Amino acid sequence: MKLFYYKDEVGNFGDDLNPWLWDQIASDIIDEDESELFVGIGTLLNHRLPAEPIKHIFGSGLGYGRNPVVDDKWKIHALRGPYTAKELGVSQDLVITDSALLIRQVEEPVHNANGDIGFIPHYASCRTADWENIAQEAGLRFISPEWSVEKFLAELKKCKLVLAEAMHGAIVADALRIPWQPIILGSHVNQIKWQDWLDTVNLKYTPSQTTEYFKNTQKLSAGQSFKNEVKRKVLAMGLGQGMHKPPAKDSSSKTRDKVLSDLTLFKQTSQGFLSEEHIQNQLLTRFSEALDRMRK
Predict the structure, then answer these.
(1) pLDDT in tens, 108-164
(2) Domain that holds residue 204
(3) Do 11 and 47 have their domain in common?
(4) What are the percentages of helix, strand and coil residues in the chain, rounded to 5?
(5) Do 80 and 208 fall within a single domain?
(6) How many domains, the chain?
(7) Quick one: 124 and 266 in the same domain?
(8) Nearest to 68 by CA among 4, 10, 11, 22
(9) Which stretch of DSSP H or E encloses residue 260?
(10) Is the distance from CB of 42 to CB of 50 less than 8 angstroms?
């Protein structure tokens, strides 16, 4: 069967985990045969799934787009969480957790009591502001979801705690036994999919939230800056709904100072969350059994 996952043009850790991980633990069942698809890590269950091939669902979830229609070409081996099962109209017995947990089959837990405090923004945040600069000023180790899986993991392992806006940053940190604190930097965070995962490890989504901050990281000409400002004003009046949406206006230095202060406070006060070891072990066992059944 062929591996099906979202390929971001720049890169996104949660999606890019797919070829990296499945090549190590399921290479015997994945090839280029498009008559069957292996749908693994990611919020992949929506109307965009190809209709014709048989689809083997292994730890994916809902969260974006319209709900798909489940038919006889769906072979559900594991779902990310109870919300996904309910929305699909299938048994809750099919729920295990997000399959990124299976990184534990190839990576050892990390116990780095003297490590740094990491900062993992959502990939969308990385494209709207200079978060690396702010993280450095706050004394945080910046970890970009746009990096390669290898670089991401190498930097993550240097941490004793991570502030994570990216859900798969938190999932992998939890799998590797690194405490994590959920944060919200912008309105793009999908809280439903976070709780879908967290319900499987008996935790609640309780993020620390800061003011939205925007900073264009590309140098724009005076002409382009003027055009963007005109578009913002037109859209603010309820007009021009069909036009290409311009980037948000750069935030003030006061907003930047507030964000920096918030992150510094999170760094100083966050204890982090961690699922219980016995729960993680149970979920890993269920995944192993599901993978064995698929092979047979």
Answers:
(1) 999 889 999 999 999 999 988 999 999 999 999 999 999 999 999 999 999 999 999
(2) 108-273
(3) yes
(4) 40, 15, 45
(5) no
(6) 2
(7) yes
(8) 4
(9) helix 253-269
(10) no
